[in-house]
Amino acid sequence: MNFNSHTDAVVAIAVGLVNALTAGEARGRPYQPPVGEARAAAVADILSIGDRPAPAVAEAEADALAEVAGRLRGVFEAVARGDVDTAAYAVNALLAETDARPHLDRHDGEPWHLHFRGAGGTLSGNYAAGCATGLAVVLGSELHDRLGVCTAPHCDRVYVDTSRNGTRRFCSTACQNRVKTAAFRARGS
Questions:
Q1: Which phi and psi (to 5°) does residue 12 adopt?
Q2: Whose CA is closest to 64, among 96, 106, 95, 98?
Q3: Which of 72, 53, 61 is nearest to 10 (CA)?
Q4: Nearest Cα to 6, choosing from 156, 108, 152?
Q5: Beta-carbon count within 10 A of 161 CB
Q6: Are 172 and 100 in contact (CB under 8 A)?
Q7: What angle do helix axes 84-98 and 59-80 make, rounded to 10 degrees?
Q8: How far apart are the C-alpha atoms of 163 and 188, rounded to whole Å?
Q9: Distances from the Cα of 148 to the Cα of 75, 117, 120, 171, angstroms
Q10: Of 168, 155, 182, 159, nearest to 11 (Cα)?
Q11: H or E stretch including 13?
């Protein structure tokens, strides 16, 4: 399931930011996000989707995006609970705060396509506006239930289900395999 290339990209960035920059559990273990230079490097990696070069990310920008990631996590958690209204209110608040503005852009040999920028023109503000807009596109469609939180025990990483049948329940193959292995072992005992 694809929305459009730019929406897919910013929603993938939202997932990456939430999973890398929010504390919780990942694949059965406690997870603490990186700090300082390591956080900035993690953000640069997330923003270098596809074959785009990693942008320079200052620690202050990474810290700002970590705050945004916490708010984006709330959107995924609300959808996973079936509370689309709360998810929509959270996205609307981010859209208003970032003053997300549409802008046609052409780069990297691609045709003109829609980007959303924050009014302040900062890296963190632009990506916050783009992620909020991408999630608004998803929430405003019949595919809002494609946003999810991993259902594996001891994992709270988020995902976007891009499968044809829309039945994804895990953030990764590792979590899916962990659950299947535990079920197999439980049946064999």
A1: -65, -40
A2: 98
A3: 72
A4: 108
A5: 17
A6: no
A7: 160
A8: 31
A9: 9, 25, 30, 8
A10: 159
A11: helix 5-21
Q: How many CB atoms lie within 10 A of CB 43?
A: 31
- Phi, psi for residue 36 in degrees, rounded to 5: 60, -135
**Most distant CA pair in the chain, distance:** 59
Query: Which of 79, 87, 85 is CA-nearest to residue 145?
Result: 79
Write out residues in the chain with pLDDT < 70, as ranges. Answer: 1-5, 50-51, 189
How far apart, in whole angstroms, are the C-alpha atoms of residue 130 and residue 4? 13
Which residue segment(s) compose the domain that 84 sits in? 5-188
Residue with token string 């079920």: 183
Two tokens, residue 61: 């920008």
What is the domain-level CATH number for residue 29? 1.10.3300.10
pLDDT at 62: 97
Number of domains in the chain: 1
Question: CA 144 → CA 13, 98, 127, 160, distances in Å?
Answer: 17, 22, 21, 10
pTM: 0.90
Question: Which strand (E) or helix (H) includes residue 59?
Answer: helix 59-80
Question: pLDDT tens across 60-69, in order?
Answer: 999 999 999 9
Question: Residue 181 is encoded by which pair of tokens?
Answer: 């292995």
Angle value at C-alpha 75, between 168 and 93, nearest 5 degrees: 155
